[in-house]
Amino acid sequence: MPCTNIGFRGSDEGGSLSLRGLSRASVVSLLLVGGWIALSAPTIWGQEGINRKVKTKVAPIYPDLARHMNITGVVKVVVTVSPNGTVKEAKLVGGHPVLVNAALDAVRKWRFEPDAQESTGVVEFRFNSAR
Questions:
Q1: Are 130 and 67 in contact (CB under 8 A)?
Q2: Are residues 21 and 79 in the same domain?
Q3: SS3 for 24?
Q4: Which residue of 2, 44, 79, 112 could cross-link 52, Cys pair, CB 3.0 to 4.6 Å?
């Protein structure tokens, strides 16, 4: 199978990436799904609907595969917080499959101030490959 080279911003090796062994359809899929702009490390973008103060926020660890492939994007997670402040449930709303587990693992470690009842809301994590 021929070698496919793609130009993208943020490359240290002259602006191309060798994707030896991948079909053109696979390469196009990577480009459409991934995004190729290198900006900064993963950040917590927003928190909607949870009216409690966060006592402990754990930032997601940017997956090595995502960094290697320069995959960027937003992962949205619906979080249910129990009355004692721990995350009872975290459900994926959307995001790139390579980034999802990092966001879910991080948000499950968050701790909120206690409250009389459960709270539910959406948390967004923005992943940008760091160079």
A1: yes
A2: no
A3: helix
A4: 112
Q: What amino acid occupies position 45?
A: W
> Could you read off the pLDDT of 13-40 as tens digits, one per residue?
333 344 455 555 554 444 444 433 333 3
- Specify whether 18 is located in the same domain as 51: no
Domain count within the chain: 2
Residues of the chain by 3-state class (helix, strand, coil), percent to 5: 20, 35, 45
29 and 58 in a single domain? The answer is no
Whether 62 contacts 107, CB under 8 Å: no
Q: Residue 51 in contact with residue 119, Cβ under 8 Å? A: yes
Considering the domain architecture, whether residues 58 and 120 belong to the same structural domain is answered as yes
Question: In this structure, what DSSP letter does residue 15 have?
Answer: S
- The boundaries of the domain holding residue 93 are 43-127
Shortest CA distance to 55 belongs to which of 21, 20, 81? Answer: 81
Look up residue 130 and give its two tokens: 């760091």
Specify whether 120 is located in the same domain as 69.
yes
For the stretch 34-80, pLDDT in tens is 433 333 344 454 566 778 889 999 999 999 999 899 999 999 999 99
Q: 51 and 22 in one domain?
A: no
